[in-house]
Design a protein that fits this description.
This is Gene transfer agent family protein. Helices cover 46% and strands 9% of the residues. The protein is mostly helical. A two-stranded antiparallel ribbon has the order 1-2. The chain is globular, with a radius of gyration of 13 Å. It starts with 8 loop residues before the first strand and ends in an 8-residue tail after the last helix.
Length: 107
């Protein structure tokens, strides 16, 4: 099970439960893959509801790779994501939000 306190989000890909996380390396790959702007621009697009399918795909790939997956975006062309494109978009948005939300502290 994914650990939300570590910024992890689960996604079922071709029937296999995968853990996604945006590590520093995954964030760097994501930023390099973005056609325009920086990560803050991506965050703004998601917050404003103006994200593209390319944004979702880039986040999913980065998250999967941060979780240890060795695939590429091309591997996802024929992959089945349980819940379809809307589930992928929700998972991508949650992944992005968790990456930039500090963990709660008790005290």
């Amino acid at each position: 099970m994914a650990n939300p306190w570590r910024g992890e989000v689960e996604l079922v890909l071709d029937g296999e439960r995968r853990v996604m996380r945006l590590t520093l390396g995954a964030l760097a790959e994501l930023e390099a893959a973005l056609d325009e702007g920086a990560l803050i621009d991506l965050v703004r697009r998601f917050e404003g509801g103006a994200c593209s399918s390319r944004d979702v795909l880039a986040l999913i790939v980065a998250g999967l790779r941060g979780g240890g997956w060795q695939g590429t975006a091309a591997d996802l062309v024929s992959a089945e994501i349980t819940g379809g494109p809307m589930a992928a978009a929700r998972a991508a948005a949650e992944l992005l939000a968790r990456a930039f939300t500090p963990p709660e502290t008790t005290g």
